[in-house]
Amino acid sequence: MAAVTGGGPERVGTVKASLKERVVERLARAVAGDRLDQLHERLDDMQAEIQECRQLNLRLAEVTDLVEQLLLPMAARDEEKIAEAVEKYSRTI
Questions:
Q1: How many CB atoms lie within 10 A of CB 41?
Q2: Distance CA 7, CA 31 (A)
Q3: What distance lies between CA 17 and its chain's CA centroid?
Q4: CA distance 57 to 86
Q5: DSSP state of 93
Q6: What does the alpha-carbon distance between residue 12 and residue 7 come to, in Å, rounded to a whole number?
Q7: For residue range 26-51, what is the model confidence (pLDDT) as tens digits?
Q8: Where are the domains positioned within the chain?
Q9: Which one of 12, 24, 55, 82 is separated from 3 by 20 to 30 angstroms, measured CA to CA?
Q10: Cβ-based neighbour number of residue 57 at 10 Å
Q11: The pLDDT value given to residue 1
Q12: Share in percent of the chain as helix, strand, coil (round to 5)
C-alpha cells in the first residue's frame, strides 16, 4: 500500500472518507444495479416535493396572517386598516 504524503492527518481522513464513499457506491451499484439510479431519482423528486410543500406552507401562513389582519379590523369596523391589509397582501401576489 502506498503511503499518502503531505497534508497531515486531515488529508488522510479526507482520502479515507473519499475512498469509503467510492467503495460504498460501487458496492451499492453491484448489489442494486439500476435500482440505485431509480432511488436517486426518487430522492430528487421527493426533495423537490418537500421544497414545494415549504413554499405552500409559507403562502398559507401569509394568507392566515391576512385573514387575521382583516378579521380584527372588520370586527371593529376599521376600514383604513382593512384597506391597508388588502393592499399589503396584494403587493405579495
A1: 10
A2: 35
A3: 25
A4: 20
A5: -
A6: 7
A7: 888 888 778 888 888 999 999 999 99
A8: 8-92
A9: 24
A10: 10
A11: 45
A12: 90, 0, 10
Q: Check: pTM over 0.90? Answer yes or no.
A: no
What is the rounded distance in angstroms from the CA atom of residue 19 to the CA atom of residue 76?
68
- Give me the mean pLDDT over the 61-68 stretch: 88
Cell numbers at 66, concatenated? 391576512
DSSP string, 37-56: HHHHHHHHHHHHHHHHHHHH
> What residue type is assigned to position 8 of the chain?
G
Cα(48)–Cα(45) distance, integer angstroms: 5
Nearest Cα to 62, choosing from 34, 92, 28, 22? 92
For the four alpha carbons of 33, 35, 40 and 41, in that order, the dihedral sign comes to positive
How far is Cα 71 from Cα 31, in angstroms, rounded to an integer? 59
Cell numbers for 34 = 439500476
Res 92: pLDDT: 78
